[in-house]
Design brief:
Largest sheet: 7 strands, mixed
Function: Serves to protect the cell against DNA damage by alkyl hydroperoxides. It can use either NADH or NADPH as electron donor for direct reduction of redox dyes or of alkyl hydroperoxides when combined with the AhpC protein.
Oligomer: single chain
Number of helices: 6
Order of helices and strands: EHEEEHEEEEEEHEHEHEEEEEEEH
Distance between the termini: 15 Å
Strand content: 25-35%
Shape: elongated
Organism: Oceanospirillum linum
Family: Belongs to the class-II pyridine nucleotide-disulfide oxidoreductase family.
Subunit structure: Homodimer.
GO biological process, one term: response to reactive oxygen species
Structural class: alpha/beta
Helix content: 10-25%
Bound molecules: flavin-adenine dinucleotide
Number of strands: 19
Length: about 300
């Protein structure tokens, strides 16, 4: 059995694995796709001490760093269940039917951005269609952008972007904004933020290389309008990869794994880190930090049990 079995090979999982292996304990990592969301990222400018890197390069470096230690990396494996075994060990069941046993488990399965599923969105991903204002906002300095979604993340994004870009157009599907009042008031007070409600985004437009605009349908009149923008920030939710844990662990109403400050979940000996948890602010540097926390939390648990 493993001392620590990490489920997930993104920045949180890689960090957990390195911190665990450095304690000299038997460590394994299961990853459906090593690198996680970082593999889908083009430019990264906020990974502190590295002024610029790119997703695939950082993924290769993460893997290289993990491989400096004695860690079993099991790629292209999906965990489908977690349970307490009769022998006191945790059991992680894989999609291929295999069952791995461990004294402690760190869940770092990350999350995925909810997509609009409209024509052009996939084609122009990272060519104007973005999901992270903290990451990509500065790319649109002085240009017009749209934010899709009028919840807290959409309105926060609009306020954040308004200080950088020329004009922000917020498109909200419903007839009212779902963000907190204080955020809505702030956004409404900004001269370069325009909020359009009852707007259903229908298509991302581009010139073959990058985004040039979008179309939306006014749900009140059924009229279709075009907005010319260089960037589109999709802010309609982050979906945690926690479906397989629903019946096992305490999850928040959004499906995030509830953790304490040491990364401990509701099942003793099971820790979690990164975007799949309730910890706020989903960023590479934040998830790496929480991976370290969860690994040290797991080590503390192991030496006490
Ligand atoms: P993830 O990176 O999501 O990794 C999850 C891992 O778990 C993957 O290996 C996945 O295959 C695996 N997994 C999932 N389910 C299972 C399962 N059932 N069984 C086995 N394995 C499983 N952040 C920044 O700080 N700067 C940026 O510039 C930046 N740009 C971004 C751009 C894009 C397009 C996206 C999508 C995100 C960006 N982020 C950025 C956010 C950052 O990528 C995430 O916060 C970070 O990757 C979260 O790390 P994680 O390890 O928690 O999860």
């Amino acid at each position: 059995a493993y001392n620590v079995l990490v489920v997930g090979g993104g920045p949180a999982g890689a960090s957990s694995a390195i911190y665990s292996a450095r304690k000299g304990i038997r460590t394994g990592v299961i990853a459906e796709r090593f690198g996680g969301q970082v593999a889908d990222t083009v430019g990264i400018e906020n990974f502190i001490s590295v002024s610029y890197t790119e997703g695939p390069k950082l993924v290769a470096q993460l893997e290289e760093h993990v491989k400096e230690y004695d860690v079993d990396i099991m790629k292209a494996q999906q965990a489908v269940a977690l349970r307490e075994g009769a022998d006191g060990l945790k059991e992680v069941e894989l999609a291929n039917g295999a069952v791995l046993k461990a004294k402690s488990v760190i869940l770092a399965t990350g999350a995925r951005w909810r997509e609009m599923n409209v024509p052009g969105e996939a084609e122009y991903k990272a060519k104007g269609v973005c999901f992270c204002p903290h990451c990509d906002g500065p790319l649109f300095k002085g240009k017009p952008v749209a934010v899709i979604g009028g919840g807290n993340s959409g309105i926060e994004a609009a306020i954040d972007l308004a200080g950088i870009v020329e004009q922000v157009t917020v498109l909200e599907f419903g007839d009212s904004l779902r963000a907190d009042d204080v955020l809505v008031k702030k956004a409404e007070s900004l001269p370069n933020v325009k909020i359009i409600k009852q707007a259903m985004t229908t298509e991302v437009l581009g010139d073959g290389k990058k985004v040039t605009g979008l179309t939306y349908k006014d749900r009140a009149t059924d009229e279709v309008h075009t907005v010319n923008v260089d960037g589109i920030f999709v802010q309609i939710g982050l979906v945690p990869n926690s479906d397989f844990l629903k019946d096992t662990l305490e999850l928040s109403s959004r499906g995030e794994i509830e953790v304490d400050p040491r990364g401990q979940t509701s099942m003793p000996g099971v820790f979690a880190a990164g975007d799949v948890t309730t910890a706020p602010y989903k960023q590479i540097i934040v998830s790496m930090g929480s991976g370290a926390t969860a690994a040290l939390g797991a080590f503390d648990y192991l030496i006490r049990s």
